[in-house]
């Protein structure tokens, strides 16, 4: 048993949905995960996925999820449509739409499937890193959502005091341990949110604050329910980097591993940035 049971955890309250009709749920956005403009994108993505997870017609487990942030999500009530577009024998395709005041603010698609045991291989090994417990926890208070996560940086900390664009350290990579705070058993919803905990890559490359935000993200879930259960509430190791920043848009490629080296999630996203 963890310090906070899921029923009382801030994350579960943030993604909570109430059935309101066929393919329809209602929810509420409070300020517990507030970011620069609206809530932390990871919790919004987890909320949309939760619509499919909670749907009575759902089959299988999530394999991929794409979320497009169409506009700012405001504090207060929202409606979420979770529509199973097509269900086959072992696969299912979803359309996810979050609305406030009748307008779509976030849209998404998800692919679910019933996994079958097959030959398996992991080709992307976990980077070498000191144990999470040997590193100090970074306490940050600039945004509400920071308090809901435990960050332990191995390298690539955003530190504006370093100066802009040091040519000897010109990279955008971050390596860190992270988990929910207080600790919470890992599941698909929390893994979805954890996949978006990395700051915009432009912050790390230039080591200064730049107005920026995610426009679209895609998660690929490598883990099944049993693997997530084995990960428990322990830290995950996350690694993120950009491949190109050009004309006010930047990508990000990231991975999350359990502490025993199992790759759980691969994620990509595109973010805008301004000068």
UniProtKB/TrEMBL annotation:
It comes from the Bacteria. SUPFAM superfamilies: Thioesterase/thiol ester dehydrase-isomerase (SSF54637). Residues 132-272 form the Acyl-CoA thioesterase-like C-terminal domain. Residues 36-112 form the Acyl-CoA thioesterase-like N-terminal HotDog domain. Signal peptide: none annotated. This is Acyl-CoA thioesterase.
């Amino acid at each position: 048993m963890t310090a906070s049971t899921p029923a009382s955890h801030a994350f579960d309250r943030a993604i909570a949905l109430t059935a309101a009709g066929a393919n329809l749920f209602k929810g509420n956005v409070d300020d517990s995960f507030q970011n620069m403009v609206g809530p932390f994108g990871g919790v919004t993505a987890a909320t949309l996925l939760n619509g499919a997870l909670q749907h009575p017609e759902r089959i299988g487990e999530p394999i991929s999820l794409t979320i497009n942030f169409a506009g700012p999500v405001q504090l207060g009530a929202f409606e979420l449509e979770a529509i199973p577009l097509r269900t086959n024998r072992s696969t299912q395709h979803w359309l996810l739409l979050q609305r406030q005041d009748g307008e779509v603010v976030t849209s998404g698609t998800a692919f679910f499937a019933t996994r079958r045991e097959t030959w398996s291989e992991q080709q992307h090994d976990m980077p070498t890193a000191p144990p999470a417990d040997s590193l100090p926890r970074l306490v940050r208070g600039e945004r509400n959502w920071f308090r809901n996560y435990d960050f332990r940086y191995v390298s690539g900390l955003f530190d504006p005091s370093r100066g802009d664009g040091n040519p000897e350290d010109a990279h955008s990579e971050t390596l860190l341990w992270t988990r929910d705070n207080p600790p919470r058993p890992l599941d698909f919803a929390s893994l979805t949110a954890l996949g978006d905990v990395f700051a915009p890559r432009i912050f790390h490359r230039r080591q200064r604050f730049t107005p920026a935000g995610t426009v679209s993200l895609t998660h690929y879930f490598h883990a099944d329910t049993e693997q997530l259960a084995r990960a428990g509430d322990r830290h995950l190791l996350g690694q993120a980097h950009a491949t190109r920043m050009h004309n006010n848009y930047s990508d990000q490629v990231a991975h999350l591993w359990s502490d025993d080296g199992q790759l759980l999630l691969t994620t990509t996203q595109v973010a805008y940035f301004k000068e």
